Structures are given as C-alpha cells and as structure tokens.
C-alpha cells in the first residue's frame, strides 16, 4: 500500500527527539478537497510529555485510519490528545477529571499540537498543560490565544468532541446505548444535520413552552360575584365545559367599633412621666457609681505602684540576705583561720538584727496593704454588681418607656382618627340639618318646626330605635322594588370594569397564542420535514448494513403526543430470525450486539459527512469473530468511499485475512526503550530489513 501522498504515519515514543516537519499539503483533487482531506480534518498530531509519550508525531490519512497496537502502548493516548488538543473537556474521556493528570509522570508540563486542514490555510492549535496547577496555555497558529477563541475556531469547523456521534472514547462506548432517544436525536442533529436544524428544534421547544403557558391561562374562565353577605366563584373549563361554583360568607364590617378611655390614657401618661423620672434618677446613680469606680481604679493603681515598690524592697532584702550569707561564709572561713573577730561578729549581729527588724516591718506593712487591697477589691466587686443591677433596671425602664410611648402614640392615632370621624359626623349632621331645613322649607335662622309639620312628625315613632326599624323596613321595601342595593351596583360596575380588562388581556393572550402557533407551524415545517428526510437517509443506510449482516435493524423518529421536546431517534435491532425488533437499550442486547449496533449507526452517519472526522476507540471489544469481520468490511467500504470524511478506528487486535483498501492508513503504535527517534526513522530501510528477514 504505497500511495503517492503517503508520508510517515507512524507513532513514535522516545525522549529527547526533535519534532518532524510535515511536507506541503498535496494538490487539490477533483472533488475540491486537498488530497482527499475535508475542511477540519486532522493533518498532524504532535505530543510531548503527554501520558505514555515523551515525544510523538502522528500523520493520519484523509479516509479510514486504523490505529493498531497492543494494550498499554498508547493508542488511547492519541484519542486523549485529539480531545484535549481541540478544547474538549476531561469528562468526555471518562478518565482523570484534572487536565494535569494527562502530563507524563515525572514531568512538570506536557503539550499537544494539532494541525487541521483549511482551504484558506491550515489551522495549528497548541496546548501546553501545567501539571502542578492544572492550567493550560493556548496558541493559534503559533500566537497566544484564549481557550474561548480556540473553542470558537473549532466550532467553525463543525468539530464536536463532546458529541458521542462524532467522538466515542473507549470509556464512553457503553454510554452510547444508554443515551435516551431525545439525547440521540440532539447528538445526531448536531453531528450530521444542517447547521440550522438544531437551532430550529430549540426554537420550536421554546415556542411550545410559551404556548403551554398561554394555554394554561386560557384553560379556565374565572368569574367572581359579590352580594351583600356572600362571595361566589364560578369556574368554567374551555375543554370539558364543566362549571364549578363555590361560595363563602363575607366578614362583617368593623368600622366605629374601636373606643378610647380618656382616664386610661391619662393614667398611661402619668406612668410614662414616672418612668422618665425613674430613668433620670437611675442615670444620676449610674453617674455617681461611675465616679466612684474611677476613684477605686485610681486607688487600685496606687496600690499596684506600692506593691511594685514592696516587690523591689523584697528584691533588695533578698540581695541583703545573700550578702549576709556571703559574710557569714567569710566569717566561718575566718573562724577556721583562728582569727578572733568577736567585735566584728557582734557588730554584724547587730546589723543583722536591724535588717531583720526592718524586714518584719516591711512584711507587716505589705500584709496591711494586701488586706486593704482585698477590702477595696471586694468593695469594687460589690459596686460593679450594683452597677450591673442598676443597668438592667435602667434597660427595663427604657423598654417599658418605649412600650408606653408606642401605646401612647397608638392611642393618639386612634384618638386623632376618632376626632376626625367626629368632625366628619358633625359636618354630616350640619349638612343633614341644612337638608332637613330645606325639605321643611324653613328659613336659615329659623329653629322652630312649622305647625303644618307637627302633624306629620306626630305620626313618627318617638324613639331612635323605632325610627331605625322603620327606616330599615322602608329600605327593604325599596330593595324589593329595585332588586339591587347601592353596594351591589358599585360592585357590579367594578366587576364590569375588571371583566373588560380581563377580556382585553385575554384577547392579547389569544393573539400572542395565535402568533406562537403560527411560529410553531412554520418552525415545524422547517425542522420536521428536513429531520424526517435525514432520519430516512440514516435508516436506509442502517438497514442496509444490518441486511448485509443477515440481521435486521431500523431507525425511526419517535415522539409522544406531538411534544417537540419529547421527539427522539429510536434504534431497533434484531440479530436472530426468531425474535422481533427490540429497541437498543443497555439491558436487552448483549455487549457485542450493542457494539455492532453502535458501530453501524455511526457508519450510517459517515456518508452524510458534516463533521470533518469521527473517532471510535476499541468498539470491537466483545464482538464475536463473525460480526467483527462483517463490521470491519462495512467500515472499510463506507469510510473509504468518495464523499466521506476522516475516520479513526482504534483497536488492539485485528482478525486475519481481512479485506483492506488502498485509501486506508495503518498507524502501528509501538512502545519501548529501543524505539528510534523520528529523525532517524527510515521507512525504506525498515522495508528492506523486513524483506531480508522474510527471505531468510
């Protein structure tokens, strides 16, 4: 397999080696892609102090790349380099959660550099990882850049290392079958759908959410009706037309039920003044106590100074005792020398006695001072306790004073309100008197009732209660004639205004709902038609792949009650003719069957070719030899097609006598202490040695 555009595509693992330089990109082919590379395909991967590698360069091909090597040689390290080098998260790989863990053990930093094909100039992304603080330094085309800028550049090339339909690491292979139908649909839309498909889907879900909120508003029509004694609620459903009503009694009015006692108010004011006088006396006592405490502190300081002097005298006494002891030793020494110093001894004894007497006087004075200090300390403690009690009493009095002031203010407020009510009532009485005078046709200064009205007034009851009863009877009769009271009329007018406002609001909500439904219809037409075509294309390829394996499989669009946030892609498969199609789940199929289904679904996406490359790491683990051979033939046939993008297939082993294609690139990963550095590697020399060994 010696193609013209083949270059060194071998992964090296060695220390102190120089990075290889890539040759110029080959000339543009007939399909507008340079050497078969699509926009965003990987041209080069360089790793330095990364996981198992000291230094390595990988040059993948434009179609199918088979990365083969024994376990532990560093195949998955290349997958990690692709993910982290393209600003992917460590959670995608399912390994260490800190990026510093991907630096080779014993090294302080590592780096990954990836070169991507672009028609207007290749894009080189470099990432240097610090092991100690898990920080990264990014570069775009050898210029420093932020991670955000790298993510934007990768997004422009439609690279999604966080999408399992494009990037499937070894630790995430089992999670593909665990994806829900909704998650699989979103991943497929992002991977192979038109750029606007996923945006239409999100827009449609937003419109439906707003429509549901508006439907809830329109679902119930609420009406509230008041009478003089009760409140009625009436609810009517727009869907079932069921009417539910309920009523509740109104609370009676509470106007003019509050009274104030002037004697009690006067008593509270006297208590407040007494409390203020008591607080003033407490303040005076507190000032006296503080002054006394100041004097005691001053006296205490004087005692402390005297104590210090006594301590100094005690030290001097100790020095004198030492001197006396020294002299006594000298005397004993002199006595041993048989010197008669009787006169000196007597004089010394006299001095010692005087010193002892002085010492006794000092100690007596010291004890007297200590006793005085103890008495003063006890007095100070007693005064402090008395001060604390007075402070607590003052606090309580202040609290009582505040409470009394609050009650007084409340009472004054009630008094003010009542006074205002009294003023209003007097004004009303005057108005009523003027009205009565006008009705009786009396002059403004006239107070006597005209004679012609005495007969009418004589027919009225004599007491106010009887007059009120008569008025209530007349009001009841009037209400019987009209059927409505003034309060009901006012309530009716208010409710009528509320109904008009609610109807206006309902019209606005209805118009908004109509607009959202129109937007939903438009978004649905744009999204659903293209989505069905996409799913049909995937299903056609997926079914063909399963049919070629003498099995059955299909992909369809699954939804629940036309809820667009519930739409999903459902994969159903069967591997035996005696069974029915079953949905792909983590529990129903075996591990090998799930791997086959996952691989064939990804191959069904391959020819749709929106993402520049796909990575699948060790998905053939658990497959039986028959299915593995069939899947391998499908992968080779599909990934080496004309209109397909780059494909990375990582595996630790391959079956014998497999069918290969000229468009494939085999990347053999070796690891060990005797590997040659990249600048000393010669493919021709390796082939010559291999032929000589074969001939021998």
TrEMBL record:
Coiled-coil region(s): 258-347, 492-526
Location(s), subcellular: Chromosome; Nucleus
Example of a GO biological process term: double-strand break repair via homologous recombination
Major location category of this protein: nucleus
Biased composition (Polar residues): 13-32
Keywords: ATP-binding, Chromosome, Coiled coil, Nucleotide-binding, Nucleus
One term of GO molecular function: single-stranded DNA binding
RecF/RecN/SMC N-terminal domain boundaries: 42-652
Region span, Disordered: 1-33
Cellular component aspect of the GO annotation: nucleus; Smc5-Smc6 complex
Family the UniProt entry places it in: Belongs to the SMC family. SMC5 subfamily.
PANTHER family linked to this entry: STRUCTURAL MAINTENANCE OF CHROMOSOMES PROTEIN 5
Name under which the protein is recorded: Structural maintenance of chromosomes protein 5
Organism: Sinocyclocheilus rhinocerous
Name of the encoding gene: LOC107742906
């Amino acid at each position: 397999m010696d193609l013209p555009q083949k270059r060194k595509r071998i992964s090296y693992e060695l220390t102190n080696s120089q990075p290889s330089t890539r040759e110029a990109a080959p000339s543009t082919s007939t399909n507008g892609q340079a050497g078969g590379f699509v926009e965003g395909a990987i041209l080069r991967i360089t790793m330095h102090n990364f996981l198992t590698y000291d230094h390595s360069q990988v040059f993948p091909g434009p179609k199918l790349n088979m990365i083969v090597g024994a376990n532990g040689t560093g195949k998955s390290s290349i997958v990690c380099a692709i993910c982290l080098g393209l600003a992917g998260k460590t959670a995608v790989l399912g390994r260490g959660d800190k990026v510093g863990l991907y630096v080779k053990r014993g090294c302080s930093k590592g780096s990954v550099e990836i070169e991507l094909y672009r028609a207007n100039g290749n894009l080189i992304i470099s990432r240097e990882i610090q092991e100690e603080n898990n920080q990264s330094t990014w570069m775009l085309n050898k210029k420093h850049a932020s991670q955000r800028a790298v993510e934007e550049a990768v997004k422009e090339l439609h690279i999604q290392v966080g999408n399992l339909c494009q990037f499937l690491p070894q630790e995430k292979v089992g999670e593909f079958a665990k994806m829900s139908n909704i998650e699989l649909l979103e991943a497929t839309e992002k991977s192979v759908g038109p750029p606007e498909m996923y945006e239409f889907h999100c827009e449609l879900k937003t419109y439906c959410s707003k429509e549901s909120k508006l439907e809830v508003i329109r679902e119930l029509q609420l009406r509230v009706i008041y009478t003089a004694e009760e409140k009625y609620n009436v609810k009517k459903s727009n869907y079932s037309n069921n009417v539910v009503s309920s009523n509740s009694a109104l609370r009676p009015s509470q106007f003019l039920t509050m009274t104030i006692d002037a004697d009690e108010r006067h008593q509270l004011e006297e208590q407040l003044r007494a409390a203020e006088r008591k607080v003033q006396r407490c303040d005076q006592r507190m000032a006296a106590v503080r002054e006394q405490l100041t004097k005691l502190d001053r006296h205490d300081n004087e005692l402390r100074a005297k104590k210090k002097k006594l301590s100094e005298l005690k030290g001097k006494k100790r020095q004198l005792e030492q001197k006396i002891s020294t002299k006594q030793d000298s005397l004993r020494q002199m006595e041993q020398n048989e010197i008669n110093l009787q006169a000196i001894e007597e004089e010394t004894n006299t001095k010692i006695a005087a010193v002892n007497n002085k010492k006794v006087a000092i100690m007596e004075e010291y004890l007297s001072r200590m006793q005085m200090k103890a008495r003063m300390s006890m007095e100070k403690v007693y005064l402090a306790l008395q001060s604390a009690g007075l402070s607590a009493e003052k606090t309580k009095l202040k609290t009582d004073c505040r409470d009394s002031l609050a009650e007084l203010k409340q009472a004054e407020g009630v008094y003010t309100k009542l006074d205002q009510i009294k003023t209003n009532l007097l004004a009303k009485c005057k108005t009523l008197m003027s009205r009565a005078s006008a009705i009786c046709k009396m002059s403004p200064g006239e107070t006597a009732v005209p004679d012609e009205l005495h007969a009418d007034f004589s027919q009225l009851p004599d007491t106010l209660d009887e007059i009120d009863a008569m008025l209530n009877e007349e009001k009841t009769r009037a209400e019987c004639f009209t059927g409505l009271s003034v309060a009901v009329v006012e309530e009716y007018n208010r409710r009528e205004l509320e109904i008009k406002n609610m109807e206006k609001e309902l019209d606005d909500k209805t118009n908004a709902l109509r607009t959202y439904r129109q937007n939903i219809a438009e978004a649905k037409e744009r999204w659903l038609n293209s989505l069905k075509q996409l799913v049909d294309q995937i299903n056609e390829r997926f079914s063909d792949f399963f049919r070629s394996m003498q099995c059955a499989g299909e992909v369809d669009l699954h939804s629940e009650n036309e809820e667009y946030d519930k739409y999903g892609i459902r994969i159903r498969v069967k591997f035996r003719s005696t069974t029915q199609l079953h949905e792909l789940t983590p529990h129903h199929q075996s591990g090998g069957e799930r791997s086959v289904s996952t691989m064939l679904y990804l191959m069904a996406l391959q020819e749709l070719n929106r993402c520049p490359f796909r990575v699948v790491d060790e998905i053939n683990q658990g497959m039986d030899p028959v299915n593995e051979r069939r899947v391998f033939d499908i992968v080779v046939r599909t990934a080496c097609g004309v209109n397909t993008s780059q494909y990375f297939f990582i595996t630790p082993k391959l079956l014998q006598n497999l069918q290969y294609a000229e468009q494939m690139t085999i990347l053999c990963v070796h690891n060990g202490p005797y590997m040659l550095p990249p600048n000393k590697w010669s493919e021709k020399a390796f082939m010559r040695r291999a032929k000589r060994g074969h001939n021998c």
